[in-house]
């Protein structure tokens, strides 16, 4: 590996750390127990296909598009760039940066208030009826035991916070976009809250809240979340993809599958790539809480 390649990998690592710290700092606690009886234990839930059927960002994007928030050309261009790199397996940081910039271009100039209000509307019309009852029951069990429950997702912090609030959870950590005086700059704080960045967010939150990760639980459908699942004492696979199912079985983790059939196993490469691309493009563009580092 050349010095240039090492530098780029370090930059990606730093972006993940910053994204995690920003997500932890912006975590909503509106519904937190005033005096949780078990302060050392908590549960962390991924959102897409774990808490909600399908991709929350896809539903958000459709709702924003119907409201003329951005054009089909804008989102298609950003999504295709990211889909291409996922399909061919290209991880070059320069290409990733180009896709990120494209995804963020249409958010600049919009206000946080605008997106917060639209997010509430879109949740009611497209997401509320898609919550998995089984996962909701698991989250409630943790709350009933006096534990705090956070969502941890690559989705925008705005929509993540809305889902958490509607379910009566403690709060949420999601992708954070920068804004100045309530207006988006078109830049992310760090990177998408995805993969290793989720683990960084949980680590930062655990330190702040005094959590014992060995006594915490984590839930996800995706092998991309193995860093998050592996850092807690009680990992659980929900509606898992093939790789996560195999890993969970090999390690004796709990598995819950609320789907009919094995839809995930039949999903094609293109569908997975496009879903990931839309997630990356829209999450990058419509995250709504800002984390401002002191200068």
TrEMBL record:
Name of the protein described by the UniProt record: HAD-superfamily subfamily IB hydrolase, TIGR01490 (Phosphoserine phosphatase)
Recorded GO MF terms: hydrolase activity; metal ion binding
Organism: metagenome
Keyword ATP-binding annotated: no
Residues that span the membrane, as ranges: 267-288
InterPro entries membership: HAD-like_SerB (IPR050582), HAD-like_sf (IPR036412), HAD_hydro_SerB1 (IPR006385), HAD_sf (IPR023214)
Keyword presence, Hydrolase: yes
UniProt xrefs under CDD domains: HAD_PGPPase
Keywords assigned: Hydrolase, Magnesium, Membrane, Metal-binding, Transmembrane, Transmembrane helix
């Amino acid at each position: 590996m050349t010095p240039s390649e090492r530098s780029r990998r370090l930059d990606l690592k730093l972006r993940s750390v910053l994204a995690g710290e920003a997500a932890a700092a912006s975590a909503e606690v509106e519904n937190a127990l005033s005096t949780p009886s078990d302060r050392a234990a908590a549960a962390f839930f991924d959102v897409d296909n774990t808490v909600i059927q399908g991709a929350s960002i896809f539903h958000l994007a459709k709702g924003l598009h119907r409201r003329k928030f951005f054009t089909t050309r804008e989102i298609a261009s950003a999504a295709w760039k990211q889909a291409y790199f996922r399909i061919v397996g290209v991880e070059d940081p320069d290409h990733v940066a180009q896709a990120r910039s494209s995804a963020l271009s249409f958010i600049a100039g919009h206000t946080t208030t605008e997106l917060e209000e639209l997010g509430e509307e879109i949740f009611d019309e497209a997401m509320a009826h898609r919550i998995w009852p089984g996962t909701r029951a698991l989250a409630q069990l943790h709350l009933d035991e006096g534990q705090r429950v956070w969502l941890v997702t690559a989705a925008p912090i705005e929509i993540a916070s809305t889902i958490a609030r509607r379910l009566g959870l403690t709060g949420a950590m999601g992708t954070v976009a920068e804004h100045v005086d309530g207006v988006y700059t078109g830049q992310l704080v760090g990177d998408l809250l995805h993969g290793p960045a989720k683990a960084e967010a949980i680590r930062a939150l655990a330190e702040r809240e005094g959590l014992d990760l060995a006594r915490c639980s984590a839930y996800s459908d995706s092998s991309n979340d193995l860093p998050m699942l592996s850092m807690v004492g009680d990992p659980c696979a929900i509606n898992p993809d093939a790789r996560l199912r195999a890993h969970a079985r090999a390690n004796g983790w709990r598995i819950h599958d609320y789907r009919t059939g094995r839809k995930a196993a039949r999903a094609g490469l293109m569908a997975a790539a496009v879903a990931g691309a839309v997630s990356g493009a829209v999450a990058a563009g419509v995250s709504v809480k800002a984390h401002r580092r002191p200068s």
